[in-house]
Amino acid sequence: MKINLRKTGNSRGLLISAPMLAACEITDEVELTIEEGGLIVAPVKPAREGWLDHYDPANDKAIWPESSNLSSVTQ
Fold first, then answer.
1. 52-69 pLDDT, tens per residue?
2. Which of 9, 12, 16, 72 has its CA 20 to 30 A from that of 33?
3. What is the pTM of this model?
């Protein structure tokens, strides 16, 4: 899709249509990067998203078994 840039002060901006924003799940913030001479506009993912997707409590082992800081919670 070809669109015109709009002048905003000393910068340029572009308008992205609502259907395109929805298709990319973009809300208020984007991550903007430069790749191969072009701009990549991507939705911002929440911090730590997906960190626990593969977590299995059955395989959880104490990192510091001698630590007693959680003993009152587990009893």
1. 888 887 777 777 766 655
2. 9
3. 0.54
Neighbouring residues of 25: CB distance < 8 A, sequence distance ≥ 6: 43
Higher pLDDT, 22 or 60: 22
Question: DSSP E strands: which ranges in the chain?
Answer: 6-8, 11-13, 30-35, 38-43
Residue keyed to tokens 């506009």: 41
Domain boundaries, the chain: 1-47
- Please list the alpha-helical segments (H only) found in 1-75: 18-23, 71-74
Q: What is the rounded distance in angstroms from the CA atom of residue 18 to the CA atom of residue 36?
A: 27
